[in-house]
């Protein structure tokens, strides 16, 4: 069973915001005492924390789905919903967070660094928070927005000062065990080391870490063996120690040839922008296994050639510990020099200035798109998209409130400028989004419209008659009345009503 994992994909879903509440306070002798609906709670975030006590991503390899808590719903009597609890995920120091496309989001290279990988949703406002002198009793509340949902990739790059590189079975794990208190697995077959091993070395007053990288072979940068899988752990090391086997029995191999192969693979491996290439970093050479017969002779034979190339060469034995003290102090000297150089660079590095967004920055953009169904206008922006997500489209008053907000933001003017006319299709948000048939009149005189709670007269299907239509209706009524009078006069002239009139006169005469 694997005990070390350095690359995982997390499937995250942050907590959703709770919905606001629609409520009206009722008291004795005061049945409508005003709105008292509480706000919904915010959803919990998912936060990645660089923890020095964590050394592997194995836990997330087994449980890649991580979900934070949702926010609570608002309630009456001004009771706000509870905020969802944040979910903190400890990761090893040196973890790089990337998008599924490979874009780097953050490098958690320092202990205690925090990164919000998935932001929780925003809780909706209750009708008490939405009330104002012109809208005293809102019949709606805002919905909570959903939390961020998606995938992120975690890639672990070992944080060590010195990386031990070399062929399989060159003695790198044995060297880590001899220099530190680490206890890596050691065996007499190639590729015994399947995961990087870390050890802490104390040389005088200097303390540094060393990493044993699984063996490299020719073609490792192209994916052969295990080298490509773990070469990323060499990226953060300040110095390289080439461990060369002076007792190999394989034909065609010798320390000089092994070094040339390793150097070519290191040169072929691309490092991130801004980092020093692996081939150009400080390098030392350790000729290992001089305790083996003929190992000492081979080390003495190749040492002059290696020193002529500019390398500091040390003859060592991990069995007898010969030469290990000199090697540890030489490594400490290189590490201290690199730390001093990096400290100077850190002081000279320009300060990062965080500038807020410009006040005149456009809060939204409008794109004219077209397809088989005709031309439509797409509105993109953080505010319009969030407002749409907060709107209950089953409530006419909430829809009217959304129209008011969009109008104040300038969306209506932007649509006019883009060439939209009444009745055109407008989509808010990416993808399918929310589709509207745009009616500019919906966003006018918002504060002057009065209607029962939960309704908005501007959304009624009826329309106000124009002056011409009212004139035509008046003329139709007048013509109808004239036609009715003419019909009555014709009936009277025809004598239809004469008998009734005479009868009435005779009755009156009898009474006299």
From TrEMBL:
It comes from the Bacteria. It is found in: Cytoplasm. Its main location: cytoplasm. Its cofactor is Mg(2+). Residues 452-486, 493-512 are annotated as: Disordered. Residues 160-336 form the OBG-type G domain. One of its GO terms (molecular function) is GTP binding. The keyword Cytoplasm applies. The keyword Cytoplasm applies. Residues 469-486 have a biased composition (Basic and acidic residues). NCBIfam families: Obg_CgtA, Obg_CgtA_exten, PRK12296.1, PRK12297.1, PRK12299.1. This is GTPase Obg. It comes from Gryllotalpicola protaetiae. The lineage of its organism: Bacteria, Bacillati, Actinomycetota, Actinomycetes, Micrococcales.
